[in-house]
UniProtKB/TrEMBL annotation:
Protein's UniProt name: DNA polymerase
The keyword Transferase appears for this protein: yes
Enzyme Commission code(s) on record: 2.7.7.7
Cofactor(s) needed for function: Mg(2+)
Encoding gene per record: LOC107217937
UniProt GO BP: base-excision repair; double-strand break repair via nonhomologous end joining
Protein family per UniProt: Belongs to the DNA polymerase type-X family.
Function description: Repair polymerase that plays a key role in base-excision repair. During this process, the damaged base is excised by specific DNA glycosylases, the DNA backbone is nicked at the abasic site by an apurinic/apyrimidic (AP) endonuclease, and POLB removes 5'-deoxyribose-phosphate from the preincised AP site acting as a 5'-deoxyribose-phosphate lyase (5'-dRP lyase); through its DNA polymerase activity, it adds one nucleotide to the 3' end of the arising single-nucleotide gap.
Length: 337
């Protein structure tokens, strides 16, 4: 995954408000570790960022989805004073800012960030001197800190898609490669590149963990040989995390690359999952449970009366998943929240 950022709506008329809400959200996630509040602030920020008009006061904001009494009050305080007491305090406490900074390093989560700050490690400079305290992933996150903070323009993902497709077609013409994530949702910029690969002859029946692992390792080996993959963060049987850059574009930053391989009978559940957004996935799974189904990145299954998953439904398109759940189909571009 990549770290969640503020909604990137260029013509956000409430950007000052959605920005302070995102700051509060990050504080809740990184310092308080209160995911409930984190999600609440994020939802409110998303609502405000998507508005086509400027919010005038808290009272008005309270009518919007995800904005309650407390957030409305903060909006009033911010509109009247240009700042927020709570954020002023947070920024002056000496630990919240460095904890937030540490979590911007790929691979460092809130717990690790706190551990580092408690040990007096508060800057990137400090981190560089204490690499013995970091995992392989975190060291790579530090090495490419500036690169990974830069968003990837859609055009660059599109060109990389072409390169990736041509390399893996040389391995086997039948491979199917789909770039999912924010790119598939039509975003102008992405935080990383999420690649899903399947093959019509590989099914969950015909392919055991070792087969899949062999397939993924072979693909990665070839992408390394072509100079596209430059580092491996981790690689298992179905999931690769690493770093890439198209050798034809060596002036560009290095990019975070995620690759998943999936058997073809799991492909559409995998595409749905890997396309996200994560919030959209969460809501869809919750809806599935209400309809007595369980949905994950592999399959859609009916729940029995005892609440146990039954046999996997036959799924031959993303539309199938929506219709079996009694939902109108949503195109990837409509799955941004
Ligand atoms: P981005 O432009 O910031 O990369 O936005 P994104 O493409 O929507 O986010 P992502 O973090 O790359 O995740 C894309 C999808 O991959 C998510 O919707 C989620 O279903 C799936 N996903 C993983 N691993 C993880 C993970 O560790 N955390 C999260 N949040 N999502 C994950 O495959
Ligand atoms: Mn990702
Ligand atoms: Mn992504």
């Amino acid at each position: 995954m990549s770290k969640r950022k503020a909604p990137d709506n260029a013509d956000n008329l409430n950007s000052d408000l959605s920005d302070f809400l995102i700051e509060l959200a990050n504080y809740e996630r990184n310092v308080s570790k209160n995911i409930y509040k984190y999600n609440a602030y994020r939802k409110a920020a998303g609502t405000l960022a998507a508005l086509s008009y400027r919010v005038k006061n808290g009272e008005e904001a309270k009518k919007l989805p995800g904005v309650g009494e407390k957030i409305a009050k903060k909006i009033d305080e911010f509109l009247q004073t240009g700042k927020l007491q709570k954020l002023e305090k947070i920024n002056a406490d000496g630990i919240s800012a460095p904890i937030n900074l540490m979590t911007r390093v790929s691979g460092i989560g809130p717990s690790k960030a706190k551990e580092l700050v408690d040990a007096g490690i508060k800057t990137l400079e400090d981190l560089r001197k204490n690499q013995d305290k970091l995992t392989h992933h975190q060291k790579i996150g530090l090495k490419y800190f500036q690169d990974f903070e830069q968003k990837i323009p859609r055009e660059e993902v599109r060109r990389l898609e072409t390169s990736l497709k041509s390399v893996i077609a040389n391995l086997d013409k039948e491979y199917i490669l789909t770039i999912c994530g924010s790119y598939r949702r039509g975003k102008d910029e992405s935080g990383d590149i999420d690649v899903l690969i399947t093959h019509p002859k590989f099914t969950s029946e015909s392919m055991d963990a070792k087969n899949k692992g062999g397939m993924l390792k072979n693909i990665v080996k070839h992408l390394e040989k072509e100079g596209i993959i430059t580092e491996t963060i981790s690689i298992g049987n179905t999931k690769f995390m690493g770093v890439c850059r198209d050798p034809a574009e060596s002036s560009k930053p290095f990019r975070r690359l995620d690759i998943r391989v999936t058997p073809s009978d799991h492909y559409y559940c995998a595409v749905l999952y890997f396309t996200g957004s994560d919030l959209f996935n969460k809501n869809m799974r919750a809806h599935a449970l209400k309809k007595k189904f369980t949905l994950n990145e592999y399959t859609l299954k009916h729940l029995t009366l005892e609440g146990l998953p039954g046999n996997a439904e036959l799924i031959t398109s993303e539309e199938d998943i929506f219709s079996k759940l009694g939902l109108p189909y949503k195109k990837p571009e409509e799955r941004n929240s």
